[in-house]
Amino acid sequence: MNVLKDEDLQAFVDGALDEGRLAEVEALLAQHPEKAEKVRVYRQLDEGLRALYDPVLEEPVPERLLVRPRPWRQQPWARAALAAGLVAIGVGIGWFGRGAMLVPGAAASLARQAAVAHAVYAPEVRHPVEVGANEQDHLVRWLSKKLGTDLKTPRLGDFGYDLVGGRLLSGPSGPVAHFMYQDKRGGRLTLYVTAQRDTRQTAFRFSQESGVSVFYWIEGRYGYALSGELPREQLLAIANTVYQELNP
Amino acid sequence: MDDHPIVEHIPRLRRYARALAGDRYSADDLVQDTLERAWNKYHLWRPGSDLRAWLFAIMHNVFVNQMRSRRLDLEQVMEEPPSPQVRATQPDALELADLERALSRLSLEHREVLLLVAVEQMKYEEVSRALGIPVGTVMSRLSRARERLRQHIEGAGHIVSLKVVK
């Protein structure tokens, strides 16, 4: 091992040698002054490069780079994908670990409530809804009145889902409008809408609770959650449409 | 929103972009394109993995694609001296300008490895992840990059006077 390789010189410059090899390389450099000179120059060059570019770190970051893309409206697909990523972080370091950037308590609890409601009502065969889609106008008027806002039922026909109907539930912050959709194979989605105490707008978030996938968000005074037993990507596409239909 | 982990890396992305793209405006364009892609692809980032390497990998790809889409031969781009940056108030301005010129004469693959190691101070494994090349390749490119940079500088007769005033 008593040969000084190029890699040794580099690793020596970068402080990347382990202790044993470091001692050997130091000894070898003492015997090879021309190599030691190279090391000296390499270090100077590195230092020069840092002197050249480090000042950039001190510059204020231009505003245009700090603007988070808001593709929610312009590029809905992109923003939803971003939100899905946010959730990935949330899972990575713990849902409640990092405060506002991750999942605010209210929003997370929204996801949980929605997942529970889905788990309870989606398997229901005989009474999945209180008011069927055949009385859609009445259903929407009724639930709108209960929630104190103008609700809409998104059209999800493009994804093969038709409205089954809806029901009124009670949630931790008051009445909940619960709409159910179904595809030809009987797969069901539920949309959970409720007033929120914490009205701060959130990004699109994803959660999974015992097999139920939930995309949820808070917009204005209301929280929305779309639940289904679907892979995230599929549910994401639908959640996007729901969002767009509700916020034209 | 400013405490998002991606945001923390913006100053470093700008520094790297400046070294790659030369002038401030094209460098920030590169950062902006990189960030746009990063935000849109963030769901693909594996939590717990090296976010910095991921972001630098995106910047690398964006830069290489931009070069390609401009249908410029990369080597030609490398030969082109960058617009010199004026730092007239600093006593070492001359030497740094020489260094910058010498750096711009390196091929892109050499320049990238050297910048990531020397300026970004990444470990070889991190460089390997950021550029998608094996560690052995990182080492050999680094070795050649430093040696060529040294030769360019010495060829310019500046090696003795390369002083760095901090």
Provide an overview of this structure.
The complex is a heterodimer of chains A (248) and B (166). About 12% of the residues of chain A have low confidence. In chain A, a hairpin with a 2-residue loop joins strand 6 and strand 7. Chain A folds into 2 domains: 97 residues; 140 residues, Phosphorylase Kinase, domain 1 (2-Layer Sandwich), CATH 3.30.200. Chain A is built from 10 helices and 7 strands. A 7-stranded antiparallel sheet of chain A has the order 1-2-3-4-7-6-5, sandwiched between helices. Chain A is an alpha+beta fold. By secondary structure, chain B is mainly α. Chain B has a single domain, classed as Butyryl-CoA Dehydrogenase, subunit A, domain 3 (Up-down Bundle), CATH 1.20.140. In chain B, 66% of the residues lie in helices and 0% in strands. In chain B, helix 2 crosses helix 3, helix 4 crosses helix 8 and helix 8 crosses helix 9. Chain B is globular. About 11% of the residues of chain B have low confidence. The interface between A and B is large, with 46 and 56 residues.
- Runs of chain A in which pLDDT lies below 50 for 5 or more consecutive residues are 71-79, 85-104
Largest sheet of chain A: 7 strands, antiparallel
What is the CA-CA span between the terminal residues of chain A?
A: 70 Å
Structural class of chain B: mainly alpha
Calculate Rg of chain B over CA atoms: 16 Å
What oligomeric assembly is this protein in?
Answer: heterodimer
Strand order of the largest sheet of chain A: 1-2-3-4-7-6-5
Strand content of chain A: 15-25%
Assign the structural class of chain A, choosing from mainly alpha, mainly beta, alpha/beta, alpha+beta, or little secondary structure. Answer: alpha+beta
Let me know the CATH homologous superfamily of the largest domain in chain A. MucB/RseB, C-terminal domain
